[in-house]
Structures are given as C-alpha cells and as structure tokens.
Amino acid sequence: xxxxxxxxxxxxxxxxxxxxxxxxxxxxxxxxxxxxxxxxxxxxxxxxxxxxxxxxxxxxxxxxxxxxxxxxxxxxxxxxxxxxxxxxxxxxxxxxxxxxxxxxxxxxxxxxxxxxxxxxxxxxxxxxxxxxxxxxxxxxxxxxxxxxxxxxxxxxxxxxxxxxxxxxxxxxxxxxxxxxxxxxxxxxxxxxxxxxxxxxxxxxxxxxxxxxxxxxxxxxxxxxxxxxxxxxxxxxxxxxxxxxxxxxxxxxxxxxxxxxxxxxxxxxxxxxxxxxxxxxxxxxxxxxxxxxxxxxxxxxxxxxxxxxxxxxxxxxxxxxxxxxxxx
Length: 327
Ligand code: ASP
Description:
CATH superfamily of the largest domain: L-asparaginase, N-terminal domain
Bound molecules: aspartic acid
CATH architecture of the largest domain: 3-Layer(aba) Sandwich
Radius of gyration: 21 Å
C-alpha cells in the first residue's frame, strides 16, 4: 500500500480570472481581493481528492501572454514528471481561457489529464460558479477515462475539447460551447460520462514563443490603407478571419499579395464559427484566388485558435511548404 506522501494527487494551478476575484460593492467592480478566494474551497475539494494548490499568477485573463502560457506549460511538465501526480486543473480567466487551453493542448507532452476551468461569477456573488466548476474539474482530472484526450475545458457540468471550445456569452454560466462538435462529455451526479472516444491534437515541441502573428478580421467596405501597418513591421505569419467559406474584399488583396510574396504564411479562417473554409469562389477576393496566392486554408479552427496553432507550428520549425498539412 502506498504511504500518504506517495498517494496520487491532482495539481491545481491558479492563474487568476473572475474565479479568483470578488465584487466590491463600493466601487461596483469585480477585481482581485485581499485574499485568494480559491483557498477557501480547499476543504470542499479535499472530500474528492488529494491535491496540491499552486498560485502561479493572479492576473485577469486579458493580461495573459504567450510567454505566460509557456511558463504555465513548463510548470505543468515539471509536475507531470512526478509519478504520484495523476492530473492537473488550471484555473483561468474566461476571456482568453480557450487560447491558453489550446496552447497547452498543442504543446504539453503528457497523457495525464489537464483540465482548464474558471468562473463567470466572482467569489462573493450570488450563485458563484467557481467552487462547483473547480470540484467538477477535479473530478474529471481524477478520472482515468480523461487520459489521452488532450486538454479539456470543464464548465457548467460539461466537458469540452480545448480545440473546439469557445466563450459564447459575456455573463451566462453556460458560456463555454463547442458550436461545431458539442461537448465530449458531461458530469452526472455520480460519474464522469464521455460520449466520444479519446482523441487529441497533434503535439509540437517548442522551446520559446516569440513569433509575431497578428489576427485580422475582414469587414465590408474595408480599405487598403487599414492593412498597411502589416507591411511596416516584421511579422512571422498572419491569420485572416475571412467571410463565409473563405473570401475577402478586393481592397485586402494588395497587402495579402505583398505578404505572400515576402514569404509570410497567411492562414485563412472564417468569421463563421461553423463549417470549413475552402477555395470555392472564383471572383476577385474569392477563395480560389487566395489559394492561388499561396494562402493556407484552415479547417475547423476559429481565428484565435488558428493564430495559436500557427505560432506553435512556426516555433516547432515546420517549414513553409509543409504548413498547409498542419491545418
Ligand atoms: N474578465 C475576466 C477574465 O477573463 C472574465 C472571467 O474570468 O470570467 O479574467
């Protein structure tokens, strides 16, 4: 029998967000308080599992950066090498949670469950969802069926794949949805129930995250001058949120053409959050023209995820002529 020190445990890593904040009635604002409220949930969590809670950052998630994501990934991998660590829960602000979750999904070299969660209501708000999301996440991270599924997002009793999940509502506690694929599982009162077999994204080995990859959105009446800044700086890649199946206004073409001529990879995604982009339309700015120019078409990722993937793929040293296969 294992002694207590050797027994399996979950590592909970706090990074901040509303789950770690409180509402201040005087200023009518939500912000970090004097105490980290997540520590008050520890006695409840102890009823479910052995765990260790680590305070890595205490930032609102709009302050998240790729460097911080990388530090988080390194921290997870240091713990993952310990045999008695069986899984991870990361608490995170919801605004950019899906980007960090997908970054980890692409870069962590472990089959141990990694679950990302947060809260829409601060710790002292009526119906605060942080404690229940944390307990449910610990239940998922402790379940052997959660292994080899890549990074998961647990929220409001649902389990989502990091690759597909997105924040869909500014305040509703059911904000996290996977519009195209639905949740991969759910939490019942008694167990963790998956409705899809394990599958995970390809993993990349990276040792830094320095690539400069902007994301731009196409709109009607776009003017060429709006995009000029893209030619004035060194960019390593570009993600374009195009219309529908992958089309842009003609005014965007000169800058995109110049960037491809300079060898900058351009990934086309859709403003629609369902469906695939394809080289379908033959008119000026249509997908056929973009494909001919050398733009890459991305299947099934929304803009902010495609950006993370392009950065990671570039850092992993995938050469330009093989990038399309990654998307
Ligand atoms: N603005 C907050 C953040 O992302 C929202 C939240 O955590 O729910 O940090």
